[in-house]
Specification:
Layout: E1 6-12, H1 16-27, E2 35-41, H2 47-52, E3 58-62, H3 68-82, E4 87-92, E5 95-97, H4 101-111, E6 116-119, E7 122-126, E8 129-132, E9 140-141, E10 144-145, E11 151-153, H5 154-160, H6 172-182, E12 186-189, E13 197-199, H7 209-228, H8 232-251, H9 256-272
Parallel strand pairs: 1-2, 1-4, 2-3, 6-12
Antiparallel strand pairs: 4-11, 5-13, 6-11, 7-8, 7-10, 9-12
Helix pairs in contact: 7-8, 7-9, 8-9
Keywords: Glycosyltransferase, Transferase
EC number: 2.4.-.-
Pfam families: Glycos_transf_2
Length: 289
């Protein structure tokens, strides 16, 4: 079978030491990506200066933080137009894959001549609530997968286009998978005991400011996606799910008022159709566009 080239697309923002750790995990892969594309999302912590020394990488420096989805879109577009790989391996900077991850995904993608997306973490929706799928060492079709550490075929990009660049943070992988499935393309997972990703989720630590802004974007972006995939059933399950979140917030955890009001605001901004970076994750200030 013909060896197909893989471009790693990695998005980073203001986590220099975490990025260095991530790159050390990439170096240990039993199969190396043919290209490494790093989208530096406006970092101001020395990341830009560090990446200047890495001539073996393809570096794209942006002036501001555009979010994970936009970073993926920028990196994928560059890789497709300049490097022409068959697969894109997608990654956030705070996720650390065991050495077998890329080879495992690649070998399984080759088995099915992947036209779509294959990951190691996937979900099905049950009454609007995502339930993680335990696929085992079987290639299993699912509702959607995490983009982080997933493999996406160039043919999928050619069919449905890129990741949305207007969601800022959250739900970009869900939207992309919905578009793949609408076109009849494959969205699936495959798993193994040796194939793991240590996801630090540094932007969403419990009871931190992160959980406030993530709740806002989660509520807003799911409604924006609903606008493009409208049905009465989807609308019902959207509000059913958001109600469960709001009840949980009211009963448990810290920062209840901020978490509650920003999720409500996210719902309202989704209804209004606001896109992009409408809530600053650091200051929690709103800027409407």
């Amino acid at each position: 079978m013909t060896e197909r080239k893989v471009a790693l697309v990695l998005v980073t923002f203001n986590r220099l030491e975490i990025l260095k750790t991530n790159l050390s995990y990439i170096e240990r892969q039993t199969k190396n990506p043919d290209f490494i594309v790093i989208v530096n999302n406006g970092s101001t912590d020395g990341t830009t200066e560090f990446l200047i020394t890495k001539s073996e990488f393809h570096i794209i420096n942006k002036e501001e933080n555009l979010g994970f989805g936009a970073g993926l879109a920028i990196g994928i577009s560059y890789a497709k137009n300049s490097l022409n790989p068959e697969y894109f391996w997608l990654m956030d900077d705070d996720s650390f894959p065991t050495p077998q991850v890329l080879s495992f995904l690649y070998d399984n993608a080759q088995k099915i001549n992947l036209n779509g997306a294959l990951g190691i973490t996937g979900f099905d929706l049950k009454r609007g609530i995502p339930k993680e799928v335990d696929a085992g060492n079987r290639i299993t079709e699912v509702g959607f997968i995490l983009a982080d550490n997933a493999l996406v075929s160039k043919s999928a990009y050619d069919s449905v286009g890129n990741f949305r660049d207007d969601l800022f943070m959250m739900c970009e992988d869900y939207d992309f998978c919905l578009r793949l499935k609408k076109r009849g393309l494959f969205v699936g997972v495959v798993q193994s005991d040796e194939v793991k990703v240590d996801r630090k989720h540094l932007g969403s630590q419990p009871n931190s400011q992160g959980i406030i802004w993530r709740g806002y974007y989660h509520a807003r972006n799911h409604f924006l996606i609903l606008r493009s995939n409208f049905s009465v059933e989807n609308l019902f399950f959207y509000f059913y799910r958001q109600s469960k979140y709001l009840i949980h917030i009211a009963l448990f955890g810290k920062n209840k008022w901020d978490r509650f009001r920003f999720r409500i605001l996210g719902i309202w901004h989704g209804i209004k159709g606001y896109t992009g970076k409408t809530l600053d994750p650091i200051t929690l200030k709103i800027s409407k566009n």
